[in-house]
């Protein structure tokens, strides 16, 4: 938005965009990949009048999946109206498309060879096309052939889910598989699934190039909106100059980490971000939250928050409040529960705030929670990668 405002001073098209706009809305994405998919989806839905380059289908690249084939192939392509393939995009460059496909291929192998061959493709030799359709077509045993086809098609379905934005569903399915293999003591298969989860999470959450800084006027408005939401429950809350949010990230208790993100006057204050490696990983998520708060309170010199946000509901809020009470510290605590996101107030009966989804204060809390989740996940993935991979 800021780039549009600056460009409007020297560019006629940008000036028209600003003059004719009567509303500004935004989506918060915690990874570059998610932002790319969201942008492509909005462009296809809205076909923006002034976005001439994006509307030119001859110039922009898509990810094509040839679902009309028995064993679909995936590759970069221009938009085709053949009604026999899926197209995801548009994306700004071939580099972007190749990057996305390269990262997805590490988790879900697929074939990108357009012509049928009697020999396995290059990528099959490095397990990036596995099982390879060229090899499948040569198999005479019907049962084996059908089983390999099933595996390949399942990979394609997972890729379609990722490109459709259903990231959490794919990760959930992988985690279910991991638990099943572990329960059956099939540790080699479990290791493969665990590594796939790591690859996919690194791709989804560590490719972060989004600038979260926003106009100072918007910051003031969303702080005021949040204060209005909380005033009925915390009458003494006069300032939200410093807000801290806490989150925990782990996979089956391994490499558990916690995060503290800080917002000063409505803006991220990354110099006050803190990360915690959980000392006792055998404890529950609630105990981990308690450990983080205890360790945080040892550093009063960092300053004290006017509001604390936790990712969760009454259990997480209660865990935080108990630690604050033992230390004779009185700070308002709220939580954000999921599905759908809703604010839970840390007072008796734990009332839930129901507001319009366009409410600035409500969306500000969601933004803070997402930033805390991103920061915790980033450190968690770093520790896991350091342990498993050669970095």
Number of helices: 13
The largest pleated sheet is described as: 8 strands, mixed
Assembly type of the chains comes to single chain
Q: What class would the helix/strand composition place it in?
A: alpha+beta
Helix content: 40-55%
Number of strands: 11
How far apart, in Å, are the first and last alpha carbons?
A: 37 Å
In short:
With 391 residues, this protein is α+β, with helices and mostly antiparallel strands. The chain contains 13 helices and eleven strands.
Characterization of the model:
The chain is of the alpha+beta class. It starts with a helix and ends with a helix. It contains 13 helices and eleven strands. The strands form two sheets. Strands 4, 5, 6, 7, 8, 9, 10 and 11 form an eight-stranded mixed sheet that branches. The protein is 47% helix and 15% strand. The protein has helices at 2-7, 12-20, 32-46, 52-55, 94-107, 133-138, 142-163, 167-183, 187-206, 216-231, 285-296, 314-326, 360-388; strands at residues 61-65, 74-77, 86-91, 242-251, 254-264, 267-268, 274-277, 307-311, 333-337, 342-345, 352-353. The chain folds into three domains: 1-30, no CATH class; 33-206, no CATH class; 216-388, Nucleotidyltransferase, domain 5 (2-Layer Sandwich). Helix 5 (94-107) packs antiparallel against helix 9, helix 9 packs across helix 13 (360-388) and helix 11 runs parallel beside helix 12.
């Amino acid at each position: 938005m800021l780039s549009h405002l600056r460009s409007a001073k020297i560019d006629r098209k940008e000036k028209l965009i600003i003059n004719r706009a009567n509303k500004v809305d935004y989506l918060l994405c915690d990874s570059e990949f998610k932002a790319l998919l969201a942008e492509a989806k909005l462009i296809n839905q809205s076909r923006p009048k002034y976005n001439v380059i994006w509307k030119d289908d001859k110039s922009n690249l898509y990810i094509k999946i040839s679902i009309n084939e028995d064993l679909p192939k995936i590759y970069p392509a221009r938009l085709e109206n053949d009604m026999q393939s899926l197209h995801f995009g548009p994306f700004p460059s071939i580099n972007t498309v190749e990057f996305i496909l390269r990262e997805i291929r590490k988790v879900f192998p697929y074939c990108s060879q357009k012509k049928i061959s009697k020999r396995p493709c290059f990528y099959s030799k490095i397990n990036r096309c596995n099982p390879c359709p060229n090899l499948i077509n040569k198999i005479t045993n019907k049962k084996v052939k059908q089983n390999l086809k099933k595996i390949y098609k399942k990979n394609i379905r997972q890729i379609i889910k990722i490109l459709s934005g259903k990231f959490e569903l794919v990760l959930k399915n992988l985690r279910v598989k991991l638990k099943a293999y572990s329960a059956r003591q099939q540790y080699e298969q479990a290791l493969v699934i665990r590594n796939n989860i790591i690859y996919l999470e690194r791709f989804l959450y560590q490719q972060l190039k989004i600038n979260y800084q926003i106009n100072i006027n918007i910051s003031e408005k969303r702080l005021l909106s949040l204060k209005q939401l909380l005033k009925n429950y915390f009458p003494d809350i006069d300032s939200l100059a410093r807000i801290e949010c806490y989150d925990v990230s782990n996979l089956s208790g391994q490499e558990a980490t916690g995060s503290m993100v800080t917002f000063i006057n409505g803006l991220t204050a990354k110099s006050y971000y803190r990360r915690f490696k959980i000392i006792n990983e055998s404890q529950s998520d609630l105990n981990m939250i308690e450990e983080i708060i205890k360790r945080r309170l040892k550093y009063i010199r960092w300053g004290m928050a006017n509001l604390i946000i936790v990712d969760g509901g009454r259990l997480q809020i209660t865990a935080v409040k108990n630690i604050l009470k033992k230390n004779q510290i009185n700070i308002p605590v709220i939580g954000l529960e999921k599905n759908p996101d809703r604010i839970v107030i840390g007072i008796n009966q734990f009332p839930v705030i129901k507001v319009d989804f366009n409410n600035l204060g409500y969306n500000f809390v969601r933004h803070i929670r997402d930033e805390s989740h991103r920061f915790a996940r980033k450190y968690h993935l770093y520790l896991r990668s350091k342990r498993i991979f050669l970095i």
